[in-house]
Design a protein that fits this description.
34% of the residues lie in helices and 19% in strands. It has 286 residues and is α+β, with helices and mostly antiparallel strands.
């Protein structure tokens, strides 16, 4: 990123710290200036100040993580600090075995979701600190807006739980964007360029996330049909950021082989008939 917004500002390398809740799968992204213990300690301090102190921390055996754990342990065990922090809950730091990055599958998946598309989205431009932080916050909101489970089993209830509910108590929303520029016009302002980059991330990531929920096996294994009352996500190409079109199945149309390929759903926009390939069941929907 650029250190300043000047024309000949020095370009420096920047990193992203990914925090993942082991219970709700909520994601928190922080920009880090260096791969050092001091930089990570400041990043962890910002995370604790905004999200609260976790009861346990899991990470790999990175030297900055190991160094941060040693410094925090030395600080907590100091005789002058014991009485002040005696009333607080302890925080345990767990490390993966050396040479076993696959032990951290839950956060490695979050790293993949954020890293692969961020490189395609932001690699063509050199961003300032404010622009980089803005994109990170919007990407974090997009990752935390994904549907998890229905709020209730009521067929008239079209609400679902998201990681954002566990962070702020309600769904995460996005500021309305201006109209996207036409293909023949160049992006003239940095703000439009930032919006265009995030819109590209949202379009790619939302489609890839829905494809992971809609993975289908080979014909050697039978799959359950969509049933009346199931909550589904309707696949659309023009959904705005942080918007997941949700609906409930009110009628199914099985074929002669008793396989449902068409269903009627009710949404906030009305009642529609859609093929099953355009409907994605929520991961833990019964």
């Amino acid at each position: 990123m650029k250190e300043l917004s000047l024309r000949k500002a020095r370009i420096c390398k920047v990193y992203i710290a990914v925090f993942v809740c082991m219970t709700t799968k909520a994601v928190h992204l922080e920009s880090v200036s260096a791969l050092s213990t001091e930089a990570f300690l400041m990043t962890l301090d910002r995370f604790v100040a905004r999200r609260g102190k976790p009861s346990s921390i899991y990470s790999d055996c990175g030297t900055n993580f190991v160094g941060a754990a040693k410094q925090l342990r030395r600080l907590i065990n100091h005789s002058d600090q014991r009485e002040r922090i005696a009333g607080h809950l302890p925080c345990d730091w767990h490390f993966n075995p050396p040479g076993a990055p696959h032990f951290g599958g839950i956060w490695e998946a979050a790293v993949k979701s954020a890293k692969s598309l961020l490189l395609r989205t932001m690699n063509a431009q050199v961003w300032t600190l404010e622009e980089f932080t803005t994109v990170l916050c919007r990407v974090e909101a997009a990752l935390n807006s994904r549907p998890l489970v229905p709020v209730s089993s009521d067929p008239n209830d079209l609400e679902c739980l998201t990681p954002g509910h566990f962070l702020i108590g309600r769904p995460l929303l996005s500021m309305p964007d201006s109209e996207p520029p036409e293909a023949s016009k160049s992006v003239q302002t940095r703000w439009k360029l930032l919006q265009q980059s995030f819109r590209f991330f949202w379009r790619r990531w939302s489609q890839e996330y829905l494809n992971t929920l809609q993975a289908r096996g080979k014909w050697t294994k039978t799959e359950n049909n969509i049933e009346v009352g199931n909550m589904v996500i309707v696949k659309t190409k023009d959904a705005p950021p942080l918007s997941w079109p949700l609906g409930r199945v009110i009628e199914v149309y099985p074929g002669t082989d008793q396989i449902v390929r068409v269903a009627k759903i009710i949404t906030t926009q009305g009642v529609f008939t859609r093929p099953v390939v355009k409907l994605v069941l929520l991961p833990t929907d019964p």
